Each structure stands twice: as C-alpha cells, then as structure tokens.
C-alpha cells in the first residue's frame, strides 16, 4: 500500500512519541512522561478494542474489564510476595506476571465471548458490559485485595534487562509494545482471517453461506483482543502501581470506545490518534475547570453526531458519510 | 433465618423491583419504539431526585413537590429528545451508546454545577416517616409501603395506558412497525417525543421516590441504569410484561441474595468459606443470571413478537 495521509499522520504521532519523552526529562518536565506513558498504554488497549469493534463490528462495552484483570494479574502476585520462587517457570516476576495477565484475559475472553457471541446487536453490547460489571463487583467485594479502596503494588514487575522503576524504561517498553500491537492488528486485519472477520461484520449470513464458521472466527478475534487488553492492563498496573475496581467501571469501557471512534474505527492508527486526542483534551480541559466533563461530554456528542470517521476521517479530508 | 427479617427483605426486594421497573419501563418503551439505546436515562432519574429535593425545600411538602416535579422532568425528557436523541434514531447502536454517554457527562456535570457536589436529603412528612408494627418483631417503615403502592399503581396505570388507550395503541403499533404508523398519517415525531417524555417521567418518579431514603446525589443514575439494562435484557427488549417480571425478579434476587446467600452457602460449605464467597457472589448475582438467561435465550425471556 502506498503511503497516504492517514499513514503519514499516524507515523508522525508515533515519531513524536518516540522522541518527546527524553526531551521532557531533559527539560525538567517528568510529569509529561507520565502523561505520555498513560497515553501509550491506553492506545494499546484502544488498538485491541479496534480489532473487534472497528474491524469485527463486535461492540464490546466491557473492554475495561480486561485492562483491570491484567492489572490485578500483576498486583495480586505482587501482594502475595510471589516474586521469587518462580524459577521453574520464570526467574523474573515480570516474565511470570505479564504472561499471567495475558492468559487470564484470554481465558476470560474465551469463556465470556463464547456466551456473548451467541447474541447480537444491543444484546451483545449489554452482555459484554454485564460481564465487565461482574468482574468489577467481584473485586469490589474481595476485602483481601482492598475491595473499593484498591491495592498498592509495592514492587513492579521485574524483567530481564529492563527496570520498570525507571520511568523512561517503562515508557519505552510501552511504546515498543504499542508499535507491536499496531503491527499485529494490522497483520491480522490484512490476513485471510481478518478478511473473514470484516466480511462477517458486513454480512454475516453471506460469510456463513460461503462456508465460514464465523462464530469461531469472531471468538478467536475476541480472545486475541482481550489478551492484548490484558497486556495493556499489566503495563498500566506497573505504571500506576495502584489498582482498584474503578479501572473496570463501565464508564472506563465507554472511554475506550470513545477513543476508537474519536480516532477513527477500523483504521490502523485511529485508536492511537483517539487515545492521544483523549488524553490531551482531558489534560487541557481539567486544567481549565473542574467542570471539564461538561465540555468533554458536549464534544463527545458533537463528534458522534458530526465527525464521521473520526480524526482519521478528517485527515483524509472526508467530511462525508461513514460506511 | 427468622421470618420477620425474611418478610422485611422480601418487601425491600419488591420495592427495589418496582423502582427498577419504573426506570426499565421507560427504557424498554424507548428502545421498543425508537430502537434507541439511551444510557442517559439514568440521568433523568437523578434529575427527578434533585428537582424534587429542591422543590421540597421551597414548598415544604414532599408530596406536592413530587406532583410538581413530574411535568418538569417530562419537559426535560421532551427537550432531550428534540435536541439530541432525534438525530440519533437512524444511527447504529454504537453511536447511540457513545452520544448518550456524552449526555450523561453533560447532565451529571450540570447537576454538579447547579446543586453542588454534596447530596441533597429530602425530609419526609411525619405521616410517612413512621413505622407499622405488624407483629412484635416485624416492623415495616410506612414510606416503604408507599413506594410499593406507588410502584404498583404506576405499573397498573402504565398497563392501562399501553393496552387500553389510543396513545397506547399508537405506542404498540409504533413498536411493531413505525414506518407503517407514520404512513397511516400519525404524527410519529410527536409520538416519539411523548414516549420519551413518558419514559423521563417514569424514571424521574423512581428517583423522587428513592431520594428520601438514599438522598439525591450526582451519579446516582449511573448505578441504576446498568441494573435497569439488565432488567430489560433479561425481560426481552421492548417487552413491557418482560420488564415488569424481570424487574421484580432482579429486585428480589438481588435483595434476598445480599441478605441470605451466606446462610444458604453455609448449608454446604464451611462458615469461613461462605462468609468470604457470599458477598462476592451476591454482588455478581444479577449479572450471572443475565448471562445465564442470554446463554439459553439470546432474545431474553419475553421477546416481543415483532422485532
């Protein structure tokens, strides 16, 4: 594919994210590194959601649950001081915790997806949300792990050669992960598998008639997406060193959906653009007024009503209709 | 478990179920006729509570305030339909979810601006504040009985409205085939606005009824809206009967689960295990039920015949 404006814009933002954080450090603004880290991690989660929501047409309203589960998969072993003695599996806690986060989320996606994908339309939206609420209330009611108050992660994941206590190292781990996530989703989307997923979004009956068991294809995409979001959650847990059920609140899932739509659903760099715009707008508005949810909500409504195709649609110069 | 506690919890469950029905009935009406997912429906529940609290402060009478607040909330619902919802009917559910999510942020923040971050309590008049002693151990607060009575009366009125009036006939016809209704010369735009306003009144009423118990607070709608969605999904979206049965079911299961699940668990596991697992399971119970229902019947328990 020849480079177009959308790809150029996406690569430009990635390039900015690659060079800016060290500059923030040198100029004495480490706060902006934190902001960039959060942005990149949320972009990974949004990219994973885009695979099923944008390309697959599966409107998951419970994606924050995977982020939360991933974070708890780091927090709970750390809480039990399980960061030694895993030599049989892995000699660094991180090489145990991060795969655990991915595995837990993949399993959760497999079990819940198997049920959710039996439903369609608004039922699907609501049942994915219901499963997320289940996880939310599960962690709200477990006193051991802090319930409502959340859990502090005393020790970040240890990884060979990377020290996550150093903000820049954590940031670049997240950044490289984001690039990989974008490449993975793009590869999946352009593969035969991805074509089936997109075909099923357009016309499920037709794909079935052509002999594809779209249910299995969709479920596989759902599991991949959940696992990726779990990975983002593991990074987020390491970044904030504090996890709470609030990470899984349904409004968080709504925010992830908004990032995807704001950036441009079913585009390679859309989720990144959406996450970046989201973080920047949130940061700017919340400095201006404590009532920043008001302009933010208005903007959300206006974007949905008038900006079809999101930021990517604007960059492409396409003011017309989505679809 | 003793009988008095059980009866009280049964009444609490019934009360929660009826409040849920008031919120869910509006949701299911709006979804059934307009095919519109309205996350912001819970904000109307919150606005109902706040408006009623303010009016109670001014007028001094809770009952009068409820009567005065109902048309106000209805007008707000009418305005929301005209300003925001109308543009979204032809969009897919994703756009509707996101736009109404934005609407929640706007309305919650407006409430914050107008009424401040603190909650507002509504004092009950003396004649509602008492308790009725049925037996020595069984004491029921009068106000809870009033909520149950109001809920049942509203449900009855709604069934009458939907099944035996001209407006109800149009609502049912609109739910079956709105294009046909419009083609028959009915002002479908006005019908949509009225249905939206009706839903707003019902949700607002639920908020007003609950406010004297829990007080009006920012974000109070965001908790009940999710449960109300569970209700209409379990009941079958667009079905009034389904919403009623599912609301009572969810209300009772949630309340009784929270009170008695640990006792039930103790029958087949150790006390310690029961006491740790019961709160977790009871908090998740309604979602487990919803998942189970959808796994077996993906269209809910009472899907409307025409969809």
Strand-helix topology:
The complex is a heterodimer of chains A (323) and B (307).
Chain A: H1 5-26, H2 30-55, H3 64-79, H4 94-116, H5 121-141, E1 151-152, E2 158-159, E3 162-163, H6 167-190, H7 192-202, H8 204-209, H9 214-240, E4 242-243, H10 250-263, H11 270-288, H12 293-306, H13 310-315
Antiparallel strand pairs in A: 1-4, 2-3
Chain B: H1 3-34, H2 41-59, H3 62-83, H4 93-115, H5 126-129, E1 131-133, E2 139-141, H6 142-164, H7 166-176, H8 178-183, H9 188-214, H10 220-235, H11 240-266, H12 271-296
Antiparallel strand pairs in B: 1-2
Mean of residue pLDDT values of chain B: 88
Report the structural category of chain B: mainly alpha
Rg over alpha carbons of chain B: 20 Å
Number of strands of chain B: 2
Unreliable residue stretches of chain A? 319-323
**Largest sheet, strands/sense/barrel of chain B:** 2 strands, antiparallel
- What is the straight-line distance between the termini of chain B? 45 Å
The shape of chain B, in one word, is globular
The helix tally of chain A amounts to: 13
Helix content of chain A: over 70%
Q: In the CATH classification, which architecture of chain A applies?
A: Orthogonal Bundle
CATH fold description of chain A: ABC transporter involved in vitamin B12 uptake, BtuC
Unreliable residue stretches of chain B: none
* Total strand segments of chain A: 4
Largest interface summary:
A-B, 41 and 42 residues
Quaternary: heterodimer
Tell me the fraction of residues in β-strands of chain B, as a range: under 5%
Order of strands in the sheet with the most strands of chain A? 1-4
How many domains comprise the coordinates of chain B? 1
InterPro entries (chain A): ABC_transp_permease (IPR001851), LivM-like (IPR043428)
Organism (chain A): Meinhardsimonia xiamenensis
Protein name (chain A): Branched-chain amino acid transport system permease protein
Keywords (chain A): Cell membrane, Membrane, Transmembrane, Transmembrane helix
């Amino acid at each position: 594919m020849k480079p177009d404006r959308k790809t150029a814009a996406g690569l430009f933002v990635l390039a900015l994210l690659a060079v800016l954080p060290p500059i923030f450090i040198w100029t004495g603004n480490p706060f902006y590194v934190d902001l960039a880290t959060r942005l990149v991690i949320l972009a990974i989660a949004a990219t994973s959601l885009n695979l099923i929501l944008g390309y697959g047409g599966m409107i998951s309203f419970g994606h924050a649950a995977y982020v939360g589960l991933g974070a708890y998969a780091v927090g709970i072993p750390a809480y039990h001081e399980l960061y030694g003695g895993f030599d049989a599996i892995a000699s660094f806690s991180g090489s145990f915790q991060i795969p655990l986060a991915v595995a837990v989320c993949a399993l959760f996606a497999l079990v819940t997806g198997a049920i959710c994908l039996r439903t369609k339309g608004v039922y699907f939206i609501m049942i994915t949300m219901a499963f997320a609420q289940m996880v939310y209330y599960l962690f709200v009611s477990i006193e051991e792990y802090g319930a409502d108050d959340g859990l502090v992660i005393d020790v970040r994941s240890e990884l060979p050669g990377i020290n996550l206590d150093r903000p820049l190292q954590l940031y670049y781990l997240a950044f490289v992960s984001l690039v990989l996530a974008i490449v993975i989703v793009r590869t999946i989307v352009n593969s035969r598998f991805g074509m089936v997923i997109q075909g099923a979004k357009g016309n499920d009956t037709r794909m079935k008639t052509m002999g594809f068991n779209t249910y299995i294809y969709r479920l596989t995409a759902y599991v991949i997406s959940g696992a990726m979001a779990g990975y983002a959650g593991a990074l987020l847990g390491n970044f904030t060193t504090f996890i709470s059920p609030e990470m899984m609140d349904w409004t968080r899932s709504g925010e992830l959906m908004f990032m995807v739509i704001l950036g441009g659903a079913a585009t390679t760099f859309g989720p990144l653009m959406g996450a970046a715009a989201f973080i920047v707008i949130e940061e700017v508005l919340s400095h201006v007024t404590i009532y920043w949810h008001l302009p933010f909500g208005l903007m959300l409504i206006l974007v949905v009503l008038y900006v079809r195709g999101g930021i990517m649609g604007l960059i492409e110069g396409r003011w017309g209709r989505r679809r | 478990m003793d009988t008095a506690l059980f009866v009280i919890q049964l009444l609490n469950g019934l009360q929660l179920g009826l409040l849920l029905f008031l919120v869910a009935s509006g949701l299911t009406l709006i979804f059934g006729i307009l095919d519109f997912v309205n996350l912001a429906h819970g904000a109307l529940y919150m606005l109902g509570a706040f408006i009623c609290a303010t009016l109670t402060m001014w007028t001094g009478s809770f009952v009068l305030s409820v009567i005065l607040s109902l048309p106000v909330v209805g007008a707000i619902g009418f305005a929301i339909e005209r300003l925001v919802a109308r543009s979204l009917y032809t969009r897919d559910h994703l756009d509707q979810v996101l736009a109404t999510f934005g609407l929640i942020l706007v309305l919650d923040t407006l409430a914050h601006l107008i009424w401040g971050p603190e909650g507002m309590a509504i004092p009950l008049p003396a004649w509602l504040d008492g308790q009725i002693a049925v037996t020595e151990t069984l004491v029921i607060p009068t106000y809870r009985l009033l909520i149950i009575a109001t809920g049942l009366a509203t449900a009855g009125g709604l069934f009458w409205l939907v099944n035996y009036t001209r407006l109800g006939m149009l609502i049912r016809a609109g739910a079956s085939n709105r294009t046909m209704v419009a083609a028959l010369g009915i002002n479908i735009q006005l019908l949509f606005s009225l249905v939206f306003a009706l839903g707003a009144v019902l949700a607002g009423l639920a908020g007003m009824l609950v406010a004297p118990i829990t007080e009006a607070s920012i974000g109070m709608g965001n908790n009940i809206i999710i449960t109300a969605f569970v209700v209409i999904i379990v009941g079958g979206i667009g079905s009034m009967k389904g919403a009623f049965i599912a609301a009572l079911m969810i209300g009772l299961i949630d309340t009784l689960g929270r009170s008695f699940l640990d006792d039930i668990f103790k029958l087949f596991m150790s006390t310690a295990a029961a006491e740790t697992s019961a709160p977790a399971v009871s908090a998740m119970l309604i979602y487990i039920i919803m998942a189970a229902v959808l796994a077996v019947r993906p269209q809910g328990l009472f899907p409307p015949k025409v969809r």
